Amino acid sequence: MAQERRSGCPINLTLEQLGDRWSLIVIRDVMFGNRRSYGDLLANNEEGIASNILADRLKRLVASGLMTRSPDPSHRQKSIYSLTEAGIQLVPLLAQMCAWGLAHTHPSPLLSVRATLLVAGGPDMWEALMQELRYLHLGAPRPERSVFEEVRAAYAAAAKVS
Amino acid sequence: MAQERRSGCPINLTLEQLGDRWSLIVIRDVMFGNRRSYGDLLANNEEGIASNILADRLKRLVASGLMTRSPDPSHRQKSIYSLTEAGIQLVPLLAQMCAWGLAHTHPSPLLSVRATLLVAGGPDMWEALMQELRYLHLGAPRPERSVFEEVRAAYAAAAKVS
DNA sequence: TCATCCAGTTGCAAAATACAAGCGGTTCAA
DNA sequence: TTGAACCGCTTGTATTTTGCAACTGGATGA
User: With pLDDT > 70 as the criterion, what percentage of chain B qualifies?
Assistant: First the structure.
């Protein structure tokens, strides 16, 4: 159970928790897509994640303290997955992944809209997004600025044009 | 050969290239440890990477344009691996991984010294490091500031104390 | 000439991933 | 009250990736 760690390097330890093909995809969907239940994550995932992989990743992310699971009052079988503060603090990392992906891969134009906005917004926007996530996931007071709304508007405008 | 992509999302595309347990470890060693040959990478890797995994990752990183391989004039069997501009631009991503790892894992104190300095230095220091990497890997003119030297000095000081 | 170095490759076992089907409890409408 | 649909998974199986150890064939140096 107490998994051996390969080394004490912070990059390595981050990789040991998040260095696979799916963990950050799940976090991305919870974070940017506000998908909060298993079924929502499974049905609306862009990359077609398999149900057993999703179940495994959710378990691992909860176990390692990046997410929490709480019962959904509207449906006894459902759970609501929320980001913890540690999960929310992945925003800058994901933003850098957006930046690198935009510059060095060939992302689809429509899916690039939100990423471009997030990268252009820089650390100020990332901090505002983190505040908003603390509101949505941790019950913090609602911030004035809504990055979600800014991004939604930009996406809608781009989708209309294309 | 033309591998199917799961989606056009820039985060996903980044993950498809770098989302495994070893690719970024190899890049870290080339980037921060200035390990430039197969043998150097294999013998001095902190995490004990296996020889076949290293060979595979070097091939993939070269194939995907993050590194180049050139012959070593001093030894006909050896090659020198260098970062490309795309590889160098992973500096901010790795810096964010350092930041998250420092805050949310339990890295070893000694290995945290360099990471802490890099995180504290912020984007200015990352840019200086990138300039230095362009000098070391791409033949750009030598910059005045040497982040390598700053980091080396901090590490030596910490190692002496501990 | 011969031991050593060097950059990998090969064979095999174990683990992770992918895909499809199934399962028991819950909800809801008739 | 009953049955269909929904829900969050689990199970079984095939494929792929990883990890480990041993090995190889050429290059180098004494």
Answer: 98
